[in-house]
Amino acid sequence: MTGKTYRQAGVDLEAADEAKTLFGPHVRSTFGPNVMSDVGLFGGLVGLAGYHEPVLVASTDGVGTKLKIAYWMDSYETIGHDVVNQSVNDVLTAGAKPLFFLDYIGIENVIPTQIEVIVKGIAEACRVAGCALLGGETAQLSGVFQRGAFELAGFAVGVVERSKILDPTTVTVGDILIALPSSGLHTNGYSLVRLAFDLDDDPSALHKFYPDLNRTLGDALLEPHRSYYPMLEPALPYLKAVAHITGGGAEHNIVRVMPEGLYPMVDLGKKDIPPIFKIIQAQGKITDEEMARVFNLGVGMVLVCSPNYVDTVLDVLDESWVIGEVLVTN
After folding, report:
1. pLDDT at 34
2. What is the distance in angstroms between the CA of the first residue and the CA of the last residue of the chain?
3. pLDDT given for residue 13 in this prediction
4. Distance set, CA 184 to CA 77, 126, 130, 223, 287 (Å)
5. Do 185 and 174 contact (CB within 8 A), yes or no?
6. DSSP string for 54-95
7. pLDDT of residue 96
8. pLDDT of residue 177
9. Would you state the pLDDT for residue 93?
10. At what angle do helices 79-92 and 66-73 cross, to 10 degrees?
11. Which of 211, 240, 288, 301 has the fewest CB atoms within 10 Å, i.e. is most exposed?
């Protein structure tokens, strides 16, 4: 008599082991001198050296429905960058250096080579940010997800000297807002994109080539969430606060890093809105107000600094431009 097996129930332990073997070298490639453990332990170990009064800063997020675009395009090279960079950028808003990252992949069926591509992207993004991919989890959830569906999430931990934490309470009237460009939609607004192009019924629109994009719609939508730590790190001493422009658009996120009673006067008109947003707006007949509420419209980070440091910040950050100033709420 042959008994029932875990594989018949939808969990392939051999495939999981193969995936771990494939992505192990990618994970180890992110290890620096502070990492004190190897791949495969139940908990990752990392030391804190060179800090007088270290403060840990943590953030967690998922890639959201951008995963559906990756599935329809059968392209998984960039979503690992997305999951790392959005959390790395969040801890950066406190002035923290990314220390380590942990990922979670929940999937209906493990395909080892697919998992390797995703983890390779995660490792690449960790190396760019200078943080270790300390560990993670790949969970086979047969019966929970539809065939081919999966979830990708993770969290980052950074470290900063207590005396160097960016403090939004120091923001005052007359401070200047400086923008850094996004690389596209990053990881927000994809549910509205799917509705605008009716992708859930027919994802073929993703393969349409747009001359203004010089690529297909799908490739443009899969442009990874940009990592700002390498470029922004030299400017941190001159900043009071940093806002990561994610869901809710520029104004909603900038308000989060300033005291009550102040508000950001933002002028997006001084910089051309990237073509991808104009294409989405035209396709979905979306109002200007809704576009600004949902999408970053080409602004990935907003920095707040004293007028005395504006020229210095603009000089340090080649791609930056003044986007507005801080005013008193009427």
Report:
1. 78
2. 79
3. 64
4. 16, 20, 23, 6, 19
5. no
6. EEEEEEEEE-TTHHHHHHHHT--SSHHHHHHHHHHHHHHTTT
7. 96
8. 97
9. 97
10. 160
11. 211
As given in the structure block, the two tokens for residue 25 are 């070298």
> Rounded CA gap, 308 and 176, in Å?
9
What global pTM score does this model have? 0.89
Tell me the longest C-alpha to C-alpha distance in the chain: 81
Contacts of 116 (CB under 8 A, 6+ apart): 19, 22, 23, 26
Contact status, residue 296 vs residue 185, Cβ threshold 8 Å:
yes
- Say whether 196 sits in a helix, a strand or coil: helix
**Per residue in 194-251, pLDDT tens?**
999 999 999 999 999 999 999 999 999 999 999 999 999 999 999 999 999 998 888 8
Q: How many residues does the chain have?
A: 330
CB contact set of 176 (below 8 Å; sequence gap of 6+): 304, 305, 306, 307, 310, 322, 324, 325, 326
Domain 13-164 shares a fold with domain 168-328: no
Domain residue extents for the chain: 13-164, 168-328
Residues of the chain with pLDDT under 50: none
74, burial (CB in 10 Å: exposed 0-12, middle 13-18, buried 19+) = exposed
Cα 118 to the chain's mean position, in Å? 14
Confirm if 83 and 119 have CB atoms less than 8 A apart. Answer: no
- Which two tokens mark 149? 């569906």
Dist CA 176 CA 182 (whole Å): 19
| Superfamily for domain range 13-164 | PurM-like, N-terminal domain (3.30.1330.10)
Q: Which helix (H) or strand (E) holds 195?
A: helix 190-196
Which strands sit side by side in the sheet containing 262-266, from one edge to the other?
A: 241-244, 299-305, 176-181, 321-328, 262-266
